[in-house]
Amino acid sequence: MTDLGRLSHFLESEFKTRKEGILMHQQKYIGELLERFQMIDCNIASNPSETNAKLDECTNEERVKATKFKQIVGSLRYLCNNRQDICFAVSIISRFMNDPRKSHLTVAKRILRYVKGTLKLGMIFPSINNEGEAELEGYSNSDWCGDRMDRKSTFGYLFKSNGAAISWCTKKRPVTALSSCEAEYIAGTFATCQAI
After folding, report:
1. Which whole-number Å values give the CA distances from 88 to 43, 48, 111, in the listed order?
2. Is residue 119 within 8 Å of residue 35, measured between CB atoms?
3. Would you say 75 and 86 are in contact if contact means Cβ atoms under 8 Å apart?
4. Burial class (CB in 10 A: 0-12, 13-18, 19+), 176
5. pLDDT tens for each residue of 56-95
């Protein structure tokens, strides 16, 4: 074995040691991604998707090149490993990879515009907890009947340990909830299972 010194790059992720802890980001990968899809000069977006936007199959819209759409979505899915802020939006557009339409590509490009505006963001893993105790925080949420085609909900959860994100997921529910309360209960159940 050879000691290569402090970790600086690993699988398109960059690591920087700071006094607060270790910062992990993907600035170089994002730059390459924006250049690859000709989005380097695009305007930035303040959030990854429009509020309360609902996508469906859009069969009356013109088709786009499936290969390009799949490349964008695949690249964004890889970026989700470090960027939980785009997980929900990427999971929504991933549903339309078999028959992408113009509105689906527009949403994918909006995520790229958001990523450009948040290029310098990353995740910090704190080196020391000030209180000396481990702290676990968990959040969950669900949208009721968010999918217009089959009326199933999308849920998500996020867990933080000492302020650093350690586990997150966004997923379409396998069952249809009959009320918003039931949708939240199901999301809370999955989050509880993950916490345990």
Report:
1. 21, 9, 11
2. no
3. no
4. middle
5. 666 677 888 888 888 988 888 888 877 778 888 888 888 8
Is the model's pTM score more than 0.70? no
- The position carrying tokens 């790059």 is 9
Buried/exposed 86-117: b ≥16 CB within 10 Å, e otherwise: bbbbbbbbbbbeeebbebbbebbbbbbbbbbe
Calculate the alpha carbon distances from 190 to 153, 161, 186 in Å: 13, 18, 6
| CA atoms of 122 and 118, how far apart (whole Å) | 9
Cβ neighbours of residue 86 closer than 8 Å, sequence gap 6 or more:
48, 76, 79, 80, 111, 114, 115
Longest alpha-carbon distance in the chain: 59
Tens of pLDDT, residue by residue over 5-58, are 777 777 777 888 888 777 888 888 888 888 888 888 888 888 887 766 667 666
Give the ranges where the chain is alpha helix by DSSP (H). Answer: 27-36, 66-79, 87-94, 102-117, 180-195
The CA-based angle 160-163-167, given to 5 degrees, is: 20
Q: Is the dihedral of CA 126, 129, 134, 137 positive or negative?
A: negative
